[in-house]
Design a protein that fits this description.
By secondary structure, the protein is mostly helical. It has helices at 2-31, 36-55, 61-84, 101-121, 126-147, 159-187; strands spanning 88-89, 152-153. It has a two-stranded antiparallel ribbon. α3 packs antiparallel against α4 and α4 (101-121) runs antiparallel to α5.
Amino acid sequence: MSNTRLEQFDKAVQMREDSTDFLIHIWKEYHLYSTLEYWIMASILVFPLIILFLKIDKSKIFLIGFYGYSVHVVLAYGDIYGMNEGFWHYPFQLLPALPSLSVDASIVPVGCMLMYQWTLNHKKNYYVYAILTAGAFALVFKPLLVGLGLFKLYGNINFIHLFVGYILILLMAKFMTNVFLWTQKKYGPPTNTY
């Protein structure tokens, strides 16, 4: 009985490997360096990182960086889940092994970091601005990507689902950051309060 289960697992792994190989073939054949879409995805990766480098509050760089890393991690897991379930995918990628690299590693975390920095520096309600940021990404940015052919939704998934997902991501990132701040305050050496 256990051999059959392992054989089925091995077959599923082989099917996934074949699927990945086919996606890499498509990427090499149609996307690599030769399309406008490829360069748009490259811009979505590079330009936000340049803006972050210029605009990040250096006095709070570790706090804002940790928050952004938390957004990145939760977002990446969510994107992997959504792609594996067939809810969405990115037809044009910088690297086929990391299909959502431009979105997960740059534009969304950077946008969220700048929002978080702004709420800290101006003593604004994080949760209000997190909802607005989630709306901007789910209801403006993602439809723009769909219109450009850079993001595709499948099945019954819609932009409201993405909006709720972004809200959850931003709540989890804030919770993770708060846990570390609380732990630092309780057990660590005295530091600046944010």
